[in-house]
Amino acid sequence: MSDNGPNKRYIALKAEAGNWEEALRICGSALIEGKCVGKGFVEACVNREKAFPTGLPTIIPVAIPHAASDEVYETSVCVLKLVKPIKFNRMDDNTKTIQAQLIFNLAVKEHTEHVDFLKKLIAFVMDEQQIKKCLSLPIEDIPDYLESTVV
Description:
The chain is α/β, with parallel strands linked by helices. The chain has helices at about 20-35, 40-50, 115-125, 130-135, 140-150, and strands at about 1-5, 10-15, 55, 60-65, 75-90, 95-105. The radius of gyration is 14 Å and the shape is globular.
């Protein structure tokens, strides 16, 4: 875990999840444990993912679950590096799926910053070199890497 002062916190973990909802709950638990969000944020992410999926068919498929919630206490991202990829419906066509290897659960405290931070994160995951490096890094190095590249 990397605490990046008042701006953002990046949390990274490696785990196995049976499905997208379990993956979101794993991320949510880590964000709650880090005092970044409350339980309402996790439920908001699950409900939003059902209605508006976040899977991206990038070189290394990822998902960027996020939700507006008053229970975000600190802008943060939980990166879940999955032992085995899991199915997420695609953001651009929810009738299609991807097998996500990385989950970036985005929690933004200020609603006005949400779109800007989401754009930066999408630009990061769409950069083949950056996302491949992120996937290859040891889990403990991912927070610092994201801090230096996503900003």
